[in-house]
Specification:
The chain has 11 helices and 12 strands. Helix 5 crosses helix 6 (325-355) and helix 5 runs parallel beside helix 10. A two-stranded antiparallel ribbon has the order 1-2. It has a two-stranded antiparallel sheet with strand order 3-4. Mean pLDDT is 70; it is low at 104-117, 203-212, 218-223 and 463-475. Among the domains are: 127-175 and 203-225, no CATH class; 229-461, no CATH class. The two termini are 64 Å apart. It has 499 residues and is mostly helical.
């Protein structure tokens, strides 16, 4: 496999060796180009000590990219040909052999008069030539990693991936150059001067990750994420709770769930008893609540880690014990708020169904199955439990309807059938005997359900194909456009009027 860059959008691509010389279409920008092999790296031939005056002639010809001002070098044999700038991807024509030999000549040993100085060719750095090259390209800065992105002017209004982090960058028309103001300014003598505080650098968002510090380390490493198995919604899903890295949180959650369910059933039985039983209820109810919170704590953190790792394409969860306990407590809010919002929406849907003569139980269950995964992925994608709206996730209900349909067929439907089976079993054998079975089955289904939800996050988080990334780029580009328009409006309002 060869690692190349698209000459149109500078996107990083991988092609087989057999594709060299063939016409291919870039999957990021959709433009066709001829695959060229990457330039071979010069081998280290060692060092050789020479005497002064016996230095060999220069073997390279240099040039400066007029677009990004990068210094480029190539063998003299390539003089007069075009090369590609490794920084911005612009095509640059090297000077011819005669000009190159004149430029690479050894400087004069002494210069006593002004006639002995040599000037560069008049047409090499001509302002018209530089201005013409500048007008063919536009530059902007990646909002995530700060990399300068330079593309052709024809790409204005579209989004291109950043060559370093693959973040979609909106290419905007550069503002017109402001004319210099020649108004006189008055400087008071004795004024004190100081250095301004540096502008704080905005940290990028590390989405779908467990620990922010570990997320930052992963983000800074240039790597390719692994691909999930061939059947993402079947392979490694129902067997995931039995993985070696998942057994410990699974067993802990089951233990807490069994104790909480058993104590709650015991409280329900004693509630109908004598006054002496009321004292036991007062003692057992806080214990049941404590075990229930512990179950939510363990199961919530396990589900959060499952979604985070699975959405990146990984199969195993590594480093459960590396996350601080305080951060694990905060993870509970990422589930508490979506669960509360889902309950409110489900109650509204059930009430509306009852008003129109429908079945409120079925309507509420369907509302929970639809809204809970969308709200949970939204707060994870936004990085805050207080932001339940993510345009990327909500629009995916229509743009990636096939993915959500497979998720509900393999996740929501089996979970609903198991819930109906548990209810039937409770009616048959009683609540106190059924509570341990319910705790085990509910914990198992909890892990499987969020494993499937992580696979949905992988579909929404992938950046390999335009089909999986077009809606995300379009929405982020529109959001960026609105933010820039708001900043321009605030700047115009704060600008003092001209006299």
């Amino acid at each position: 496999m060869l690692s190349i860059r698209c000459p149109h959008c500078t996107g990083r691509l991988k092609v087989p060796s057999e594709a060299v010389g063939a016409l291919r279409r870039c999957p990021l920008c959709g433009k066709a180009f001829t695959v060229r092999p990457p330039a071979p790296r010069p081998q280290d031939a060692g060092y050789e000590t020479v005497e002064p005056g016996d230095q060999p002639a220069e073997k390279y010809v240099g040039a400066i990219c007029p677009t990004c001002n990068a210094s480029l070098y190539a063998p003299v044999s390539q003089a007069g040909t075009e090369i590609t700038c490794e920084d911005c991807g612009a095509r640059i024509r090297l000077p011819d052999k005669a000009t190159a030999s004149d430029r690479n000549r050894t400087p004069l040993p002494s210069a006593s008069t002004e006639d002995e100085y040599e000037l560069a060719d008049a047409d090499w750095y001509a302002p018209d030539r530089l201005r013409k090259n500048k007008q063919k390209y536009v530059s902007t800065t990646c909002g995530r990693c700060g990399t300068r992105v330079t593309v052709e002017r024809s790409r204005v209004g579209t989004t291109v991936p950043c060559p370093d982090c693959d973040h979609p960058v909106l290419i905007r028309e550069p503002p017109p150059a402001e004319k210099p103001s020649w108004a006189s300014t008055t400087v008071r003598l004795g004024s004190t001067y100081g250095v301004k505080k540096p502008v704080p650098v905005e940290e990028p968002e590390y989405r779908f990750l467990v620990d922010p510090e570990r997320a930052k380390d992963r983000f800074m490493v240039d790597r390719e994420l692994p691909d999930p198995p061939r059947f993402p919604f079947l392979s490694g899903v129902w067997t995931y709770p039995f993985y070696r890295s998942t057994v410990l949180p699974m067993v802990s959650a089951i233990g807490a769930g069994v104790l909480a369910a058993g104590l709650l059933e015991l409280v329900a039985v004693l509630w109908q008893g004598l006054s002496l039983a009321s004292i036991a209820v007062v003692l057992l109810l806080p214990a049941a609540a404590a075990f229930g919170l512990f179950w939510l704590f363990v199961a919530g953190f396990a589900a959060f880690g499952t979604i985070a790792v699975t959405s990146e394409g990984y199969d195993q969860v590594e480093g459960w014990s590396e996350t601080p306990w305080l951060d694990r407590v905060g993870v509970v809010f990422y589930f508490a708020f979506p669960l509360g919002e889902t309950s409110i929406l489900a109650s509204l849907v059930a009430g509306a169904a009852q008003q129109f003569g429908g079945n409120p139980v079925v309507a509420g269950a369907v509302a929970v199955a639809v809204f809970y995964p969308v709200l949970l992925l939204s707060v994870l994608e936004r990085g805050s439990p207080f932001e339940p709206y993510s345009a990327i996730v909500w629009v995916s209900l229509f743009r990636r309807a096939g993915v959500w349909l497979r998720f509900h067929l393999t996740g929501s439907v089996p979970v609903g059938l198991c819930a109906a089976g548990l209810w039937w079993l409770r009616l048959r054998i009683g609540g106190l005997a059924c509570s341990p079975i319910e705790a085990v089955v509910i914990t198992y289904l909890w892990m499987v359900y969020h494993r499937l939800l992580g696979r949905v996050g992988w579909y929404l988080n992938q950046t390999g194909t335009p089909a999986g990334n077009s809606s995300k780029r379009t929405l982020e580009a529109a959001t960026h456009e609105l933010e820039v328009a708001g900043q321009d409006l605030r700047a115009a309002l704060e600008r003092p009027p001209r006299r």
